[in-house]
Amino acid sequence: MGRVIDFQLVDLARELVRDRFPTLRASWLGGSVVAETTTSTSDLDLTVLLDGPPGAHRESLRYEGHPVELFVHTEESLTYFCDRDRHRRRPSMIRLVGESIILADYDGAGAAWQRRCLDWLRTGPDPLAPADLDHRRYHLTDLLDDLRGARDPDRIGVIGSSLLESAADLLLTGSRRWVGAGKALVTELERFDAETGSTWQADLLGAARAAWAGDPGPIAKFAEQILDQFGGPLFEGYRAEADLPTTR
After folding, report:
1. Coil, strand, or helix at residue 51?
2. CB 230 within 8 A of CB 139
3. How far is CA 243 from its chain centroid?
4. How confident is the model at residue 4, as a pLDDT?
5. Below-70 pLDDT ranges, the chain
6. Helices in the chain by DSSP H: which ranges?
7. Chain centroid offset of residue 39 CA
8. 86-104 exposure pattern, b = at least 16 Cβ within 10 A, e = fewer
9. Which residues have C-beta within 8 Å of that of residue 243, sequence separation ≥ 6?
C-alpha cells in the first residue's frame, strides 16, 4: 500500500532547488515521494530547468540528511533525454517530469513540460517496427533454447531471470506500453496489469523465483505464451543486418 505524500520532504526539496539554483526556470519533484512509495533509503528525485550555466548534469548529494538525485537540464538537454526515452521506450525522465510536483515555475515551462510528458505517457510509445519485433522474438526464443538445455540450478536461475526481463520487454513493447529496467520493470508490469486486468507481474516474478529454486517450467510456459501473442518463436530464417559506423 502506498504512503501519504510527505509534504515536509516537498518543502525541503523546494528549499534545496531555490538555494542552489536562484536563476532556475522550473523544477519538479518526482520519483518515490510523489508515487507514495518512499522507503528508508529513498532519495529525492529533483529535475531542474535552467537557461544557462552550469549546464546539463546529474549530481548525487545529501541535503539536511536526505539523499538527493539532481537532474539539471537546459531546454535542449531536456528535449534530448525525453526524445531518447521515447526511442528506448523507457520513460525515465518523462516520468520524473510528468508524474511530479512542480516546485517552481517562473515562466510557464514547468507546467508546459509536465503536460507534454503526461501526454507522452498516456499515448505510449510508437508501435514496434517489424524488425524490432523480430529481434525481440528471436532473443526470447534463444533464451528458451538455453533454458531447455540447462541442467544445473545456477544456470537455470540466471537464464530464468533473463527470460523474465526479455518476456516482459516483448509483452510491454509489443502492446505499445512503456518498459523499464530493475524495479521500474516491476512498476511498468503493475501498470499494465491494472490497465488490462492481467496478472503478468505476479506470474512472471513468481516464475523467476521458481527458476531460481530449480524449476524452469513456469518461466518457460509464460515466455511461450507471450511469444505466441506476437507471432511465435523465431530462429530459423532470422536475419539482422550489421549496424556498422559509416566511414569516409
Report:
1. coil
2. no
3. 25
4. 65
5. 1-4, 36, 38-41, 247-248
6. 7-20, 32-35, 75-88, 92-98, 109-123, 130-149, 153-174, 183-196, 200-212, 217-229
7. 19
8. beebbbbbbbbbbbbbebb
9. none
177-180 LR contacts (CB < 8 Å, sep 24+): 177/124, 177/125, 178/89, 178/90, 178/91, 178/121, 178/124, 178/125, 179/89, 179/90, 180/90, 180/91, 180/92
The model's pLDDT over 200-223, given as tens digits with 9 standing for 90+, comes to 999 999 999 999 999 999 999 999
pLDDT at 112: 98
Amino acid making up residue 44? L
For residue 183, give the C-alpha cell. 524495479
Residue type, 15: E
- pLDDT computed for residue 2 by the predictor: 44
In contact, 74 and 51? CB cutoff 8 Å: yes
Quote the DSSP letter at residue 103.
E
Can you tell me which residue has the cell 520487454?
169
Q: Do 164 and 205 touch, CB atoms closer than 8 A?
A: yes
The reported pLDDT for the residue numbered 1 is 37
Listed in sequence order, the residues at least 6 apart from 5 whose beta carbon sits closer than 8 Å to its beta carbon are 33, 34, 36, 101
User: For residue 185, how many C-alpha atoms fall within 13 Å in the half-sphere facing its CB?
Assistant: 17
